[in-house]
């Protein structure tokens, strides 16, 4: 698995941000966006109301065909009976089919009417006398018809003669069955059909198909109930989802604002340990970031205090030497004071150089682009340079690493070179004359391990962590004061930590005197 240090950095972070967000969505809160998305889904469900219009149209078309067939069959039945049996047949057919049957002669005059014969099965309702719920239903019907631009049938009116009926004229002229849909005053469909008779007359049927409207309204009512329940549940779930997302984000945002205002030490960013989702990951990441920021601020303040303290010593010595030069006339004493001035100036120069590098390390490592680095070749090069310059005090410097295994890690070569250069300098400075400094590079359990052994006095267990702090140095009393800034090991640890590795000091396994520094880095993923 690739490590964090392998992640490529974007050349244009603004373009990535533009791809991940929409300009308009950034102006709307998460709660409103969640509600809007769920309500949009409900509006799609509400489209079922408009589907009912096509459902009604199919029913009406089916009833038109049915009325046309009934009119043709009724005409054939009337034509097959004698005139004295005609009225009884009309009554029976009107009762069985639920329609109003009228018989017209060739001149268009009414010959027989089921209503006049006593069956009132075709009665139009007055909308002004209906209950409020019927008024609301008619209003909803009209609204949906307007939205879907449904065709509006003509209003049904009674006509005096048969020739006034379009169906009757069509049936007489074409000699075929004709059917038409009308609109009753209460917006229910009225279906009329006319069929020609062999004697030249026309039989006409009419039915107020309230059952079609009632069926559509019942389905609409059921859909309304489902939509209402789903709407309530969707809103509640949306608010719950928004609550679980927005509230933690607001808490994290408030904590981040307080950190930005310079109250990092006072702010406790909630870690949300019970959440295992992305918000929990974000909360823990922000909490760790605030802790790291707090540690960085503390380290910066401590570093500033340490720098002040370390700078005061050579400055005080330098000031005393300069003041002494104004009063000392002895050339020998003056030469000693000049030597003190030169040592203090060199010490200050070394301190300023190391302090400058140590203060810039974190920022430089955060911007560094890591590439594969062969530590075997890097350390071998450092050892060869030491041998070329000549190792002081007859110390032998040895480097051993497996030839068949590459010691490659992801990092910045110049910084890693500084790490091992500091460690080698440290080992040489503590080693006695004629000693051996051994460097071993190996691969262990997927890690790259470099061990540097010296034959110096070693490091006490209680000081093995302190030596990596800035301006901390445990040196023999015989060594001249001020030769080292105490920043070398601190710089080495900062660089190794920036490469997500570790550096420790321990006793040698061969029980000889001396210290062993161990650097562990992750192996680079094979490419």
Describe what this molecule looks like in 3D.
The protein is an alpha+beta fold and 527 residues long. Among the domains are: 46-221, PAS domain (Beta-Lactamase); 369-527, Histidine kinase-like ATPase, C-terminal domain (Heat Shock Protein 90), CATH 3.30.565.10. It is built from 12 helices and 12 strands. It has helices at 13-20, 30-46, 48-79, 83-97, 132-147, 166-174, 210-260, 278-325, 331-367, 375-389, 413-430, 488-498; strands spanning 100-104, 110-113, 178-183, 189-196, 202-208, 371-374, 396-400, 408-411, 436-444, 447-453, 502-507, 515-522. Helix 3 packs antiparallel against helix 4 (83-97). The longest helix is centred in the middle third of the chain and has 51 residues, at 210-260. The radius of gyration is 49 Å and the shape is rod-shaped. The N and C termini lie close together (12 Å).
Topology of this protein?
Elements: H1 13-20, H2 30-46, H3 48-79, H4 83-97, E1 100-104, E2 110-113, H5 132-147, H6 166-174, E3 178-183, E4 189-196, E5 202-208, H7 210-260, H8 278-325, H9 331-367, E6 371-374, H10 375-389, E7 396-400, E8 408-411, H11 413-430, E9 436-444, E10 447-453, H12 488-498, E11 502-507, E12 515-522
Parallel strand pairs: 7-9
Antiparallel strand pairs: 1-2, 1-5, 3-4, 4-5, 6-8, 9-10, 10-12, 11-12
Helix pairs in contact: 2-7, 3-4, 3-7, 7-8, 8-9, 9-12, 10-11, 11-12
